[in-house]
Amino acid sequence: MTVPEPDSLERLTPAELIGVVRDLIGEVTRLRSENEKLSGAFARLRVDHQAVKDELARLKHLPPRPPDKPSGMDKATDAKGMETGGGKGGRSTRRRGSQLDKLTITQTVVVTTKAPAGSRRKGYEEIVVQDLSLTPKVTLYRRERWKTPDGETIIATLDPGIVGSYGPNLHRFILALHFSGQMTCERIVALLNGMGVVISKRQVVRLLTARLETFRAEDEAVLKAGLSSAPYVTVDDTGARHAGKAGYTTQIGSCNFTAFRTGPSKSRLAFLSRLCGRTAFYVINDAAFEYMQGRNLSQVVIDKLAGHAERIFPSLEQWQRHLSALGLTDLKVAPDPVLIASEAALWGAIRHQGLLQDAVIVSDDAGQFRVGVHALCWVHAERLVHKLVPANDKQRNAIEVAKRMIWWFYRALKDYKLAPSPDQAQALRARFDRIFKRGRTGYVTLDRLLRRLFHRKDELLRVLDHPEIPLNTNASENDIRSFVTKRKISGGTVSDNGRDARDVMLGLAKTCMKIGIPFYHYIGSRLGIVGPQIPALDSLIRPAPA
């Protein structure tokens, strides 16, 4: 388009000026369209560039980039987040109370001073001082030896808390430093050697896995008690290396317990096996048949399993022989009858043990966690909208409107949990439909995402039927953060005992924290050290009978 010179514009007629303006409007429209295309292409290139950088970092074994910055929906919709305190920056100005009632005075020292003649005593000014003394204690045990008339040698037994050449207090200190303090074995050795303790890294590693069976049994009992009594469980998983190979660690927890389980896979079959327990078995019952039907397993296969008299299989080998005898291993159809039947039998074993009877499983929408009564995390659902990359102002505005509506709805769900009612639940369901069935927003990707979330309506609104469950999996992410920190500091594990010790002790430490028991006291109680005696943790998790 040829634009007239400014001097010639004055000589143009009104009709010619209108034509020039129309040409300019057309040119601006064309440039705006090209700008939107370039912005969209730039956004896609930025995403592709980041994907290439992530793949390059993976091939170089570099740590992954930090996740996208959260939108802040949960804090912004919290009652505390909506109010500002009286202090600076919204912080409370209330002073902290005294903590002296938590201390036990073990020694009183009177400090005197010289006063001039004629002074009057005005009593004492008291100050409580806390101190800690860490000094090695070396004891020589002289064990009596006797020889019986039969020629047998009898040696006096040592205190059961002694492991090798190290006592229970040192054992407890090492466990607390490694699992609660997140210290590496090398730093523990350096610290102890500097204090005068003669110990090597190999001996520290042995102490970390000593008496593991005691802690492993209690960890298993904690998981069973939690799954049988908790109204809900939140679950998550993360990567973990073991024996030089990539694996996955699954977190299972609630408000009063946490358990970690590590294995080579994070499939639904692996998740069900971890829910079932360390000694997984297989049961064909009504729950198993219901699971098979929900996964669209062929009725012919279901009838074969139902027509067999044997229903409980105590080991994987026996279960696999049973499937082979029924001819299921030879079937090459979809869905895989062996896989679905195995998942169903594990689910049947879970219900057979009385686990997850009325509990809701809350997850971040990972496919392996969609079992039983399932609920979705709202924070992860909103994050999908937050992570969209708009190419123009119209798309950016559509995202902001959608996020604002989701935030308001999330706040309404929080209010509902405080005072649930059938009328409010019905109103929230109708409001959900208005938000996620809005039709066209002007951003095709956002429209598809809203429709996808609408199809998960039952799982997103599970809280309306179960107000006791959380709206997010923040608790799981907080639990698994300790595992991720451990992985970054100490790397992977080599032996099976090392892997189990990490899972068991981290889970017990989190459980102790949730029920208000110092982990240091718990370890001392299990190692037979004189001090506070902690009852079995599963008895503190399981509610007392009415």
Describe the structure.
- With 546 residues, the protein is of the alpha/beta class.
- Among the domains are: 6-57; 212-371 and 475-541, no CATH class; 383-390 and 397-464, no CATH class.
- Helices cover 50% and strands 8% of the residues.
- The protein has helices at residues 6-9, 14-59, 73-76, 79-82, 168-180, 185-195, 201-209, 212-229, 268-276, 286-294, 299-306, 316-325, 337-352, 378-386, 393-418, 422-436, 444-454, 457-460, 474-490, 496-514, 519-526, 537-541; strands spanning 145-147, 153-155, 232-242, 245-253, 258-263, 282-283, 312-313, 360-363, 373-376.
- The strands form three sheets. It has a five-stranded mixed sheet with strand order 5-4-3-8-9, sandwiched between helices. Strands 1-2 form a two-stranded antiparallel sheet.
- A hairpin with a 4-residue loop joins strand 4 and strand 5 (258-263).
- Helix 14 (378-386) runs antiparallel to helix 15, helix 15 runs antiparallel to helix 16 (422-436) and helix 16 (422-436) runs antiparallel to helix 17.
- The longest helix is centred in the N-terminal third of the chain and has 46 residues, at 14-59.
* Order of strands across the main sheet: 5-4-3-8-9
Instruction: Indicate the proportion of strand residues.
Output: 5-15%
Q: Structural class per helix/strand content?
A: alpha/beta
Number of strands: 9
What is the radius of gyration?
A: 32 Å
Integer average pLDDT: 88
Question: If helices are DSSP runs of H or I spanning 4 or more residues, what is the number of helices?
Answer: 22
Can you tell me the overall shape?
extended
Distance between the termini: 87 Å
**Poorly predicted ranges (pLDDT <50, ≥5 residues)?**
82-88
Largest sheet: 5 strands, mixed
Give the fraction of residues assigned to helices: 40-55%
